[in-house]
Structure formats: C-alpha cells, structure tokens
Write a structure and sequence with these properties.
Blueprint: E1 5-6, E2 13-14, E3 18-20, H1 25-37, E4 42-45, E5 60-63, E6 70-74, E7 79-83, H2 88-97, E8 100-101, H3 113-118, E9 135-141, E10 147-151, H4 156-162, E11 171-178, E12 180-181, E13 184-193, H5 194-204, E14 210-215, E15 221-230, H6 239-263, H7 265-275, E16 280-287, H8 288-292, E17 300-308, H9 312-323, E18 334-339, E19 354-362, H10 370-379, E20 384-385, H11 395-398, H12 405-415, H13 424-431
Parallel strand pairs: 3-5, 4-5
Antiparallel strand pairs: 1-2, 6-7, 7-11, 8-12, 9-10, 9-11, 13-15, 13-16, 14-15, 14-18, 17-19, 17-20, 18-19
Helix pairs in contact: 6-7, 9-10
Length: about 425
C-alpha cells in the first residue's frame, strides 16, 4: 500500500513510493543514490507547512525530522550548527539556553529550519531580513550522493543560491546560523479603526524595529503590532490572561467563527465584529522568540506577495476594495509586513525594500476568486510570491522579476541538471 503524505494546511497531499526517515548523512546519501538507480525523484520534507505543492512527489520522500539537534557551537563568533530538520520552536528554546537568538523570526514557529530558509520565510522590520539571511553555512547531499559543504570561504556561490533554494539543489542536512545575543522585546498591540492603524503604521515602519498590521475584511477594525528591542526585564501576562487571549479567543473562538461561516456566511461577519474589541491596547515584555511567534492552531491556506515598499499602502487599499467584490465573507485578517532589501538571488526581497501582503482562508474553503483577485493586483506592482505559499506564477513570469535569476539557474544546472530533486511545482516555477 502506498504511503500518504498531507501538509499542515490539508490542501496538498501525495502518495510517494517511499517515505524514509534517515538519521545520518550516509543514510540520506544512500536514499539519493537509490533514487538515481531506480529513476525516482527524491524530495526532502520538513514540517509540511508550505501551502504550495513544494514537497509533493511520487518518488522517495525524505523526512528530515531526525536531523534535529545542535551539533556545534562557537560562542565567540555566536554561530550555531544544527540539523536542518529541527523545528523552529525547538531551535529557539535551545538557543535561549546558550544565551543566543535569531535576529528576526516569522510569526509561526512550527516550520522546520530547512523549510523556513528554503522558502524565504520572514518576519517584519525594515532593518531586518528573512531567516535565510542568518545562514552562513550549509551541508547538503548532492545528486551523486556526495557531501557538499558551503560557506563564505568554500562554494560561496552555492551557499548564496541554497539560502533560498526551494530544496531544488540537494538535500540540506545541516545549517550554520549567525546568531545574536539573546534579547527581549517589548510588544505593543493596538486595535482600533483601520484608518488610524494605517497612519500609525506608516509612521512606525521607518522608526520602530518590527512593525505589522492586520485588517479584518468587511470591517473598519485593524490591529497594529510593534515589537521593539528593550533591556527591560520580562513582564509576562498572567497565565489566565495569556490562556484567555491565545487559546480561547485567538484560537478556540476563531475556529468556531470560521466553522460557523462555512454554514452561515451571511451572518458570520456580524459574529466576527462582535468579537473584535476596538480601542484595545496590550503591552508586555518577553524573550524575543516568545514575542515574534504566536500560536496558530486554526489551520488555513495562505498566499503572500512581496512588492516594492513604496507601493505597499496603495496596493493594500486595492486589496481592501477587492474584498468587496466577493460573494462570501473573508473571516481571516489580512496581514501587512515590511522587510529590508537583501542580496539572496531568489529572495522575494532581493534588491529592494519590500512590503508583504498576505491573505488567508480557513482550511477547506475555496481560494478562488479571492486569491486570484489579490494576485492580479500584486502582478501590477511587480509582486514576487512567497515560494511556500499559494500562487499561479510560472518560471517564464518569475524570471523577469529576479535580477539574479540566471545566476541561480547556473547553480541549478551544475548541481541538479537532470532534475533529480525536482517536483511538478519546481518544474513550473524554476524549470519551465
């Protein structure tokens, strides 16, 4: 009987010939060589948190979950080498024990490290970058079963490509990260009228460390979140208040609203508005990763695009208008973030300060026409899709959006000319 694999969002599944869970480099190499011998594609998988069909394969699927420990620490350089399959929430805990942290994180921490960096997963802040920017070394198994070490002093061109490589270049088994001293963040959340939120957001993105907003479609309610580095000691919320906010309201209550909306769409928005407390403010101090990352127990499907920063608010306004064209209400908030420019060839933030707009639907909910309308808007601004999230773009379109596209293609041709690590999705977005 075939194995079955399903992703976190429950919108992608496949039946590989084999799902293997190796524990050593040698075992990974043997699986790669087996795939070559039997003419089967080989694909690595982490936590399955990509919404795009990034990992789906009919060949050999390599689950990297056993590569989940820190193997080397250089306290002087503040560099940590770790198994590529470790989940971010485990990595964050282990870094804290070492007095270290990653400078920036996304708002979800259930992804694997390899999956997060391979897709360009990011947080927010114009003075900061994606998780991939912290990668200073990679060890991967190539198509001939060999071990390839990449760093700034060895195979640097391979390192730059693999930092956001979609897993197309080989099986990543180990990553070296440039960390920073562990730090605290002061979190401030303010929920109020969306126009006030937008004014505050526009002023804050240039002056605050980490800034983002959420807007609840079909309402006039938005939330501004600002996270600022501080030397103040943690001031945790009470366990009861944290449980009430994070579990009962943010997850349990939100799950019920989305389930209700599937059966009673006309009245779902009224129910949502009643749950939104306007003119609400929250402020507390905690270790950085506990502020960056929040619990997301309500499963969803997501699309996200990066556009030049100067067009962010204009594009967001068009997205707001587009939601009014929909027959069914959108119960998930739209998320808006910013990020500094980087130099990673396939990073959506390559070469430009970027604004990110992310749209979501509850699991099992059709994404069309909502995602299509938003994607059409993003195209007009030269939008680059998040590689791990839903989009319809092809390599012909994408090649015009990335100045270093040919540089990446030359590395792809050198490391995997036969597409041994490819999937139908990668054929569409990289090889078409």
């Amino acid at each position: 009987m075939s194995n079955t694999w399903v992703n976190w969002g429950r919108n992608q599944k496949c039946a590989p010939d084999q799902i293997a869970r190796p524990s050593t480099d040698t075992q990974v190499a043997k699986l790669v060589c087996l795939g070559v011998a039997e003419r089967k594609k080989v694909r690595a998988v982490g936590a399955g948190h990509s919404f795009s069909p990034l990992c789906a394969t009919e060949g050999i699927m390599i689950d990297l979950s056993n590569f989940n420990s820190i193997t080397r620490v250089d306290q002087e350089l503040m560099q940590v080498t770790v198994g590529a399959g470790i989940r971010l929430f485990e990595l964050n805990k282990q870094l804290e024990l070492l007095g270290l942290a990653l400078p920036n994180l996304g708002d979800i921490d259930c992804q694997s490290l390899a999956g997060a960096i391979s897709t360009g997963t990011h947080g927010t802040g114009l003075g900061f970058h994606s998780i991939s920017e912290a990668v200073v070394g990679i060890k991967m198994i190539t198509g001939d079963g060999g071990i390839l070490q990449c760093s700034s002093s060895k195979n640097q061109n391979f390192l730059e490509a693999a930092r956001v490589g979609l897993g197309s270049l080989g099986i990543m088994v180990e990553v070296t990260l440039q960390c920073v001293p562990a730090f605290n963040l002061r979190a401030m959340e303010q929920t109020t009228h969306i126009e006030s939120v937008l004014e505050l957001f526009e002023a804050a993105i240039e002056t605050e460390d980490h800034t983002e907003i959420f807007w609840f479609p079909h309402t006039e309610v938005g939330t501004l979140k600002i996270n600022s580095k501080t030397t103040d000691s943690p001031s945790y919320r009470s366990r009861y208040k944290a449980f009430l906010s994070d579990e009962i309201i943010a997850n349990g209550g939100f799950e019920l609203i989305n389930r209700y909306a599937k059966f009673f769409p006309s009245s779902a928005q009224q129910m949502l508005e009643k749950q939104l407390a306007t003119d609400r403010k929250i402020s507390y101090v905690a270790p950085s990763y506990k502020v960056f990352c929040s619990k997301r127990r309500v499963r969803f499907i997501e699309m996200e695009y990066a556009i030049p920063l100067e067009y962010l608010l204009e594009a967001f306004q068009k997205v707001r208008e587009a939601t009014q064209q929909l027959d069914s209400p959108i119960t998930f908030p739209i998320e808006v973030r910013v990020l500094g420019a980087d130099s990673i060839p396939l990073s959506p933030a390559y070469g430009r300060k970027s604004g990110y707009i992310a749209v979501h639907v509850f699991r099992g909910t059709p994404t069309d026409p909502y995602f299509r309308l938003v994607e059409d808007i993003m195209k007009t601004y030269g939008g680059r899709p998040h590689w791990g999230k839903m989009h319809t773009r092809t390599s012909r379109e994408l090649s015009d959006l990335y100045p270093e596209w040919n540089k990446f293609q030359s590395v792809l041709e050198e490391l995997d000319p036969d597409g041994h690590f490819s999937t139908p999705y990668l054929d569409r977005v990289l090889r078409g």
